[in-house]
Write a structure and sequence with these properties.
It is an enzyme of class 3 (hydrolase). Keywords: Hydrolase, Magnesium, Metal-binding, Phosphoprotein, Zinc. This is Alkaline phosphatase 4. This protein has about 280 residues and is an alpha/beta fold. Among the domains are: about 100 residues, no CATH class; about 90 residues, no CATH class. The chain is about 25% helix and about 10% strand. It contains 7 helices and 8 strands; from the N terminus they run E-H-E-H-E-H-H-H-E-E-E-H-E-E-H. Strands 1-3-2 form a 3-stranded parallel β-sheet, sandwiched between helices. A 3-stranded mixed β-sheet has the order 5-6-7, with no helix packed on it. A two-stranded antiparallel ribbon has the order 4-8. Helix 4 runs antiparallel to helix 5. The longest helix is centred in the middle third of the chain and has 25 residues. The chain is globular. The chain starts with a strand and ends with a helix.
Length: about 280
């Protein structure tokens, strides 16, 4: 069972794909009995009670950023997670199952230094986590035989140049952490040594590295720096999309059977062993 993008790698060039070997893997999968979906309607029509195997390829390349996603064409990460759990649970029965869900576009947005897209895809990932917990609570009350682990394989160079007021959610006129850095009491824009405003979110490296002075930053507004496609400023200039990974610790958390063994600081190589042990392997 696979849901995601990348349809071009399943189709031959004659069908608009990129396969040089001429194989049509979509046709081959269908012939082997796989349910197939290329859009939201076909995805919704997949009946877990009647489908043993399924593949959903909703875009030619990457899935859209959640901010750009057409909800009538592409299912959300949470929707794919719920459907996947239903499919696997019906097929595996008491034998159990393994599912990996990746919010992969968070990484892409951070490489592009478009913080708003990264944060919205993080929200989408958070919704997928909730969907997984809710679905498994129904199938395994109390998660007595289920372990859900949430983690990341690396961080990025995103930094916070101060902080925003805890207002709950960003909205027009209230950009929150996506806006300009402000004095917490007066609400006035904070400025650098040259008197120029700056955004709360920045990057250690990225494509928007100002050459010379930042005089043009005088025109920055909350609306400008909180726009969907705004590239936050960086300390070191990189090619477009070339922001790098960082080197700080990343989050790991767990819920369910065996979750008590996943806590504190862990070496990344320990995680596999803990998951394997929880699965009784």
């Amino acid at each position: 069972m696979v849901f995601g993008g990348g349809r071009q790698f399943f189709l031959p060039k004659t069908a608009g794909g990129k396969r040089a070997d001429g194989r049509d893997l979509v046709a081959e999968l269908k012939a082997k009995g796989y349910g197939y979906a290329a859009d939201k309607a076909a995805f919704s029509a997949i009946d877990p009670a009647k489908t043993q195997r399924a593949v959903g390829l909703f875009t030619s390349s990457h899935m859209s950023y959640d901010l750009d996603r057409d909800q009538n064409k592409e299912p959300s990460l949470a929707e794919m997670t719920t459907k996947a759990i239903d499919l696997l649970a019906n097929r595996s029965g008491k034998q159990g199952m393994f599912l990996m869900v990746e919010g992969g576009r968070i990484d892409h947005a951070l490489h592009e230094t478009t913080a708003k897209k990264a944060l919205q895809d993080t929200v989408a990932f958070d919704q997928a986590i909730k969907a997984a917990i809710d679905a498994m609570q129904q199938k395994d009350p109390g998660l007595k035989n289920t372990l859900i682990v949430v983690t990341a394989d690396h961080d990025h160079t995103l930094v916070l140049n101060g902080y925003a007021k805890r207002t709950g959610k960003t909205a027009p006129g209230n950009p929150g952490v996506l806006g300009l850095a402000k004095d917490y009491v007066s609400g006035k824009n904070l400025t650098d040594a040259d008197g120029m405003p700056y955004s709360i979110i920045g990057f250690g490296n990225g494509e928007n590295r100002v050459a010379g002075n930042r005089n043009a930053a005088a025109a920055l507004t909350d609306d400008a720096v909180s726009a969907n496609d705004y590239h936050q400023e960086a300390a070191i200039r990189m090619p477009a999309g070339g922001e790098t990974h960082g080197g700080t610790d990343v989050y790991i958390g767990a819920i369910g059977q065996g979750a008590d063994s996943i806590h504190g600081f862990l070496e990344n190589i320990e995680v596999f062993g803990l998951v394997k042990k929880a699965a009784g392997l």
